[in-house]
Design a protein that fits this description.
Chain A is mostly helical. Chain A has 20 helices and four strands. The radius of gyration of chain B is 34 Å and the shape is elongated. Classes of the chains: A mainly alpha (about 575), B alpha+beta (about 675), C mainly alpha (about 190). At the A-C interface, helix 1, helix 2, helix 3, helix 6 and helix 7 of A face helix 1, strand 2, helix 3, strand 3 and helix 6 of C.
Chain lengths: ~575, ~675, ~190
């Protein structure tokens, strides 16, 4: 570890905290004040869209109606995308002449992009036509908004009193596209192109290299997809190797822009949350707890990666682990990016996670297994954190001797039931499917690395699916039918197991009377509650995976440092 | 045997031995089902026992020894939890039995339609029946006195041996079935059908304490069931992972890990905490109609307290004689004394006492001879004495001046000023006159109960707003409110204003608690979230309240709030403790499970436990014995101090969160040392 | 639900037109107008022929060139891929051992302990265009010898292409292998032609 590396990570954290407020204020202007500088352009477009689509702007929805609207929109998005993939061979904008995508992979990919997971069981530049990539991009614009809408509805549930409705999903969707996704992606795309990403629709280029070989160089509208891929915390890259690919992140600056893009909405939402509940300390506390866990993860991973692989030291190779890393990023920035991609759940990678040191891999697994709440993707990260907050508040409330309240709303059996459900289902799915994978022929066949690392690959796949993360331990044969279907299921469970209980909680809270704060209510801001929140996430959220992690990364770590390798090689 | 006698029986040897027997009876799976956490432990115990038997048949001595010990400790875990519950229930059951014995087959003398009296069994009385009860008889059922006055021995219910007076028409007209009339004869109109009497409800409440879960208890039970379910899946998935890794993990070790991870500590003590909370209330002679009410008491944000009797002594005391300018203080005092010698009211007696203290007067009622005494009435608003030609009067600032004018006298200009001043100080002015002359004013002061200021401060620290209810005018009320430190007051209160006040607080989201006794309190009691009715009060008030205070002590609400909070705190603290324990247990068992296949994992054996077998056994033993160790705490409850929620949370997090994290590391290590020293299991690493 | 589906379909069509149509065209048009080189892949032409892209690594194995990093994709820029070897995978040890032996053989006099890990471990994209400056300087003596150049001239080329950290904090110092080799070629053309 170098001072520069550590300092860079700390400065980055400071930048994230600095952008939280302006982003949060902008979101507040978009959703609550409904007055922004973009109104003269966007407001007429918005009205036009409602007229065309037959949306009644002022109509509010109950939690169930809101959920059904999200469900319908996701379903339609899934079907349309699936259709485009299945018949891509017959469609235009396919200069590399790729064939139709098969049924297993199309299902997996359509689910993946509908659920904001962007798990890619394919290499983009060797599978998808430009039209397919563009259709994937459409989902990259729309799918994160389902998550964002969820948190909007949830916060309304917390702040409205004795009400029944949580807003209008169509309005939340449309306003987000027009005021948030499109403008920011547009600027982001232009910056990324300026920094070197291609933006063309031409055929792949064949280069005659200096050595005299022929090199086929994939092209495409990379810049525009890249921007929303990061900004929407989607993570589905244009290329197989994603942000590590020199066309996706040609320079360090380009990767930094992508990092900031990926973090902006999730950190901004914490401030937005505080703003709407009229106590910004609430938002800062949540962000503080998230940042503390994020920083710890980034520094631990950086430490492990910088230490390098002791098995190679026997060969005389000393220094950071560079297997699966790009020289321009180096160990510090690669660690920062891989921690971020698993924490914020965007899932694009700038280094090969499968080749991380065991402790580095452990951090990525921890980030996902704890429920993608360490910042997390659009809305769902904060939502998951608030579910943990509800559990923390419940325990803390009992410990101060009164029926627990969060932001004035009583947390009772129904809320605890739903929060517990939101916690149970992901655990069940990750552990259940992983257990299936390591005991079935289909599952075992897809494992690439031998020994405990193989178990890590499997755990990673389902954690990534359930957490709607989308990154992978790339060695696993994700395109095998066993994994296309099981990971597909994991993605669906992860998404909707979170949606239903969260909206149900919002639907229940919105009907409740709000209890004013007194000396008898304990504060849900400040370091004490932040610490309690972290402890809840670690002990309740992640510790249940301890036996699995002991057999995966931990076993590998201790074996590695006592000089063991596993198996006969891949 | 009354409830009071039972209080000392907390941990007597007979209670313990009875609870031990009960602990075994509760092993019945149908009973265990109601507690999913402990049910899982029981199922695990059965499986490990079967495994032990299998190993015995196979002749695997070493593994049999280990498995048998695990099985024994798992059974003990279940038994400890059952014992805790049984111990708590035991106390309630004894109380219920004592009550049931008072509900003997009483014969009632029922007044028939034509006025004839017929003897019927007390259990056949219906609402509306009228019965006659004479001295020495037991009142057959709950009712209201419609005729007569009697002294009643209510010790069967309250444990208070001093008889109480019950009389028709008024706030003391309710009588309870099972109590005994000591003197006189009364006619009682029955207000409860068989099975619905106060005594019946009390018995079923105590006996049913286990089955009736409070809202927070239900929420916690869901969380615990959820955690248990998660760990069951975790353990089920661990086996395939082990197989994949090439590790051989016995079912016994998996079950041991499962039992250690699920929240057995809180799961085992949960019902004991609730039952003992109910018992603690009963020990303070409060009868909650539901556990929900106790829990709500912990949540109360606003408490309405009657000024008289709760904040101040029931009676005012004379504290100062204020003579008019041309009157000597001794003259005023003597007149006041003479007029009060025959006045038996506490106020009158306090005037006598003050006059004697100040001027060493020696007159007694005997010295008055054939004086004519005028009693205080609502119409005259004054009392006095005609004695040796002297006409002495004392009374309100309206009536006495009127009397003086009637006698042809005039009013000194200073009088009004003094009257106003005393009123503003929170006192009651009592004007004294002799003949046509105003002598002065007696300052009757409300005496604040000792310690009430501290208790009110404690409530404020707990975040509870206190509101004083009084019939006084706002000026007087304000003074007393400031003196004792209540947050708000409701002056010149009527049943309507009380009800309106409660409704308004509730509309703002507050939970309101109140104490009441009179029939005119009933609407407010019914509206309040936590309503404590005094046992001495009317039947209507008792029906409206969700708790009855058998002692009829107006400050009891404060105790109830504390107990309500204590129950929640104890549950929360033990849940936190239980969950925090998991960390150490993981570090004990996980390395032990997999060290054979991954020797490097020995690095995670940070407690340096001797061998895999000793590690697993030590963790299981710790998990078991922590339950009986915490029984006293569960029965007593975690101490509640009103210091503000943030401080309580911090303190409890340090003790039960951090403590729960650290303690098992030490405990498991110590147990491992013992296990190692005794060679209980294989010590081969 | 039927109503919801109807609204969903209408909105999806609108957004597809808006995003896949209007937005895509707008971004492409402006990118082609403002940043045509980047937008078309930052291609490098030599004698009218594309010889590569500035940021896409290509294989250099000959002794006269600065070597690129090991690549699991064999520098196929139409199928990027990483090795995905886990740290305890014997295949990783074998790969590094082979790469190290090759590097040491090609650069006599260099000790194993001097070799930066990145020169013997595969990159993420399989298309890493860069190596560390240290890895470049290690190769300088060999490049100088084979091309009959002075060591100083080779080192000068390396120094010319050294790029530091972003803002002094982020990433690692690196040199672009293709750019160095092009400079090398230019130098040779200037001096040996």
């Amino acid at each position: 570890m170098t001072v520069t590396g550590v300092l860079g990570i700390l400065v980055f954290a400071a930048v994230l905290i600095a952008i939280a407020k302006p982003v949060g204020l902008y979101l507040y202007a978009v959703y609550d004040q409904r007055r922004t500088f973009l109104d003269p352009v966007m407001r007429p477009v918005e009205r036009g869209i409602y007229r065309l689509a037959g949306v009644r702007e002022e109509k509010e929805m109950s939690w169930l109606e809101y959920f059904l609207a999200i469900l319908a929109f996701n379903l339609v998005g899934f079907i349309v995308l699936y259709g485009f993939l299945r018949i891509q061979g017959a469609l235009p904008l396919n200069p590399a002449h790729f064939k139709d995508v098969g049924p297993h992979l199309s299902f997996n990919t359509a689910v993946s992009f509908m659920t904001n997971t962007n798990w890619q069981a394919y290499g983009g530049e060797s599978t998808m036509s430009y039209l397919s990539q563009t259709m994937l991009m459409v989902q990259q614009f729309l799918s994160p908004i389902s998550g964002l809408a969820m948190i909007l509805a949830f916060i309304r549930g917390l702040t409205r009193r004795n009400a029944h409705s949580l807003g209008n999903f169509w309005v939340d969707l449309t306003r987000t596209v027009l005021w948030v996704s499109l403008p920011v992606s547009f600027v982001g795309a232009m910056v990324l192109v300026a920094l070197g990403s291609p933006q063309n629709w031409g055929p792949y280029v064949t280069a005659h290299t200096l050595q005299g070989a022929r090199q086929s160089i994939a092209q495409g509208p990379v810049g525009m997809m890249n921007a929303i891929m990061q900004f929407g915390d989607n993570g589905g890259g244009f290329f197989n190797m994603n942000a590590g690919h020199p066309y996706e992140a040609p320079t360090i600056a380009s990767l930094m822009v992508q990092l900031i893009l990926g973090f902006s909405i999730p950190v901004g939402l914490t401030y937005y949350f505080g703003k709407v509940v009229k106590d910004t300390r609430q938002g800062w506390t949540i962000l503080g707890a998230m940042m503390a866990m994020f920083l710890a993860g980034a520094l631990v991973m950086y430490h492990a990666e910088a230490l390098g692989n002791p098995l190679l030291a026997h060969l005389g190779i000393h220094g950071a682990n560079m297997e699966g890393k790009e020289v321009r990023f180096g160990p510090a920035l690669s660690s920062l990016f891989e921690t971020s991609t698993t924490a914020v759940s965007w899932g694009s990678t700038a280094a090969a996670n499968d080749s991380l040191m065991p402790i580095g891999g452990l951090i990525t697994l921890f980030n996902m297994m704890s429920g993608e709440v360490i910042i997390g993707a659009w809305g769902v990260g904060l939502l998951g954190m608030l579910a943990f907050a509800i559990l923390a508040v419940f325990l803390a409330g009992l410990m101060v001797g009164r029926t627990p309240e969060y932001l004035g709303k009583k947390i009772q059996a129904y809320e605890v039931k739903m929060a517990t459900l939101a916690m149970i289902v992901p655990t069940f799915v990750i552990l259940g499917l992983s257990a299936w994978a390591v005991t079935s022929k289909g599952g075992l066949a897809g494992i690439y690395n031998p020994g405990p690392h193989g178990l890590s690959e499997v755990l990673y796949a389902f954690s990534s699916g359930v957490g709607n993360n989308g990154s992978a331990f790339g060695g696993l044969d994700a395109a095998a039918p066993f994994y296309t279907w099981t990971v597909g299921l994991a993605m669906l469970f992860g998404r909707f197991a979170m949606y239903i209980p969260a909206l149900a909680i919002a639907g229940s809270l919105v009907q409740k009377q709000s209890v004013p704060e007194s000396a008898g209510t304990f504060p849900t801001h400040g370091t004490l509650f932040g610490g309690l929140l972290i402890a809840t996430v670690v002990i309740v959220g992640a510790l249940v995976f301890f036996p699995a992690l002991a057999l995966g990364p931990l076993a590998e770590h201790f074996a590695l440092w006592s000089g063991h390798v596993f198996g006969g090689g891949a | 045997m009354s409830i009071h006698e039972l209080k000392s029986q907390a941990l007597s040897s007979s209670a313990v031995s009875q609870a031990i027997g009960e602990a075994f009876r509760k092993l019945n799976p149908r009973w265990m089902m109601h507690n999913p956490v402990m049910f899982i432990v029981e199922v695990g115990s059965v499986f490990t026992t079967l495994d032990a038997v299998r190993l015995l048949i196979e002749g695997n001595a070493s593994l049999f020894n280990f498995t048998l010990q695990i099985a024994i400790w798992l059974w003990l875990t279940v038994l400890f939890a059952n014992f805790a519950e049984a111990l708590a229930e035991g106390r309630g059951r004894a109380q219920a039995q004592a009550l049931r014995s008072t509900r003997t087959e009483t014969m009632a003398r029922k007044i028939g339609p034509s006025g004839t009296i017929e003897a019927v069994p007390g259990t056949q009385l219906r609402v509306g029946d009228r019965v006659v009860v004479a001295a020495g008889e037991i009142i057959p059922s709950d009712g209201t006195i419609i005729e007569g006055v009697a002294s009643v021995d209510e010790s069967a219910i309250t444990g208070e041996s001093a008889p109480v007076i019950r009389a028709a028409s008024g706030d003391m007209s309710a009588v309870t079935g099972g109590t005994r009339v000591l003197s006189d004869q009364i006619t009682v109109q029955i207000t409860a059908n068989p099975g619905e009497t106060f005594l019946d409800r009390m018995i079923s409440l105590i006996e049913g304490a286990v089955r009736q879960k409070t809202p927070n208890e239900i929420a916690l039970a869901i969380l615990l069931a959820g955690l248990t379910l998660i760990f069951v899946v975790v353990i089920m998935a661990t086996e395939p992972f082990s197989i994949y890794s090439g590790a051989v993990v016995s079912m016994t070790v998996l079950i041991a890990l499962l039992v250690c991870l699920i929240p057995t500590t809180i799961g085992g003590l949960m019902s004991a905490i609730g039952i003992s909370g109910m018992n603690r209330l009963l020990q303070r002679n409060v009868l909650a109609m539901s556990g929900r009410a106790i829990e709500a008491a912990g949540d109360v944000n606003v408490i309405l307290l009657d000024k008289t009797g709760t904040i101040t002594m029931g009676n005012r005391m004379a504290t100062e004689f204020v003579p008019m300018p041309d009157v000597k203080e001794s003259t005023l005092a003597e007149a006041a004394l003479l007029s009060s010698l025959s006045d038996e009211t506490p106020e009158g007696q306090s005037i006598v006492r003050l006059a004697r203290e100040r001027f060493q007067f020696t007159q007694t009622p005997a010295d008055l001879g054939n004086a004519e005494f005028h009693e205080f009435t609502a119409q005259t608003q004054m009392s006095g004495i005609d004695f040796g030609g002297r006409l002495i009067r004392k009374g309100s600032s309206k009536s006495v001046p009127a009397f003086v004018k009637e006698q042809g006298g005039s009013l000194p200009p200073e009088m009004d000023g003094e009257v106003t001043r005393i009123g503003r100080l929170g006192g009651t002015p009592l004007v004294v006159a002799e003949g046509d002359r105003i002598l002065g004013v007696i300052y009757l002061k409300d005496i604040v109960k000792p310690g009430i200021r501290e208790r009110l401060q404690a409530l404020r620290d707990a975040g509870i707003k206190t509101v004083m209810i009084t019939g006084d005018n706002p000026v007087t009320a304000d003074t007393i409110a400031k003196e004792v430190g209540v947050d708000d007051f409701l002056a010149q209160a009527t049943p309507e204003t009380k009800l309106a006040y409660i409704k308004q607080e509730q509309a703002e989201g507050y939970l309101v608690g109140m104490v009441g006794d009179g029939t005119n309190d009933s609407p407010a009691l019914a509206q309040a979230d936590v309503a404590v009715a005094m046992n001495s009060g009317t039947q209507a008030a008792r029906e409206a309240g969700n708790m009855v205070d058998l002692d009829s002590s107006p400050t009891k609400l404060l105790d109830i709030v504390e107990i309500g909070k204590q129950i929640l705190i104890t549950r929360g603290a033990m849940t936190t403790f239980s969950v925090a324990n998991d960390v150490a247990k993981y570090f004990a068992i996980i390395p032990a499970m997999f060290v054979a296949v991954f020797p490097g994992l020995e690095a995670m054996n940070i407690m340096h436990l001797t061998s895999p077998e000793s590690a697993v056994l030590s963790a299981v033993i710790f998990n078991a014995i922590i339950i009986p160790l915490l029984i006293p705490l569960a029965l007593r409850g975690v101490r509640y101090r009103p210091v503000g929620a943030a401080v309580i949370l911090r303190n409890n997090l340090v003790v039960y969160g951090l403590g729960g994290l650290v303690l098992p590391f030490i405990g498991i290590k110590l147990i491992d040392l013992v296990v190692t020293a005794l060679h209980l299991v294989s010590l081969h690493p | 639900m039927v109503r919801n589906l109807g609204t969903s379909i209408r909105l999806l069509v609108i957004f597809m037109v808006l995003i896949a149509g209007v937005y895509s065209l707008l971004v492409t048009g402006l990118a082609q107008l403002l940043f045509p080189a980047q937008a078309n892949g930052s291609l490098i032409y030599r004698h009218g022929q594309v010889i590569g892209a500035r940021m896409i690594g290509q294989s250099f194995t000959g002794a006269r060139w600065f070597d690129s990093r090991p690549s699991a994709a064999s520098y196929n820029a139409a199928a990027s891929v990483a090795s995905n070897y886990g740290p305890t995978n014997p295949a990783l040890i074998k790969e590094v051992k082979t790469n190290l032996a090759a590097f040491l053989k090609e650069n006599p006099g260099v000790k194993a302990s001097q070799v930066p890990p990145s020169m013997v471990e595969s990159s993420d994209s399989g298309l890493d265009p860069n190596i560390t400056p240290a890895a470049a300087y290690l190769q300088a003596p060999r490049v100088a010898r084979v091309n009959h150049m002075s060591l100083a001239a080779v080192r000068h080329i390396v120094a010319e292409h050294e790029r530091g950290r972003f803002l002094g904090l982020y990433g690692s110092p690196h040199v672009n292998v293709l750019a160095m080799n092009l400079s090398l070629l230019a130098w040779l053309n200037r001096h040996h032609a």
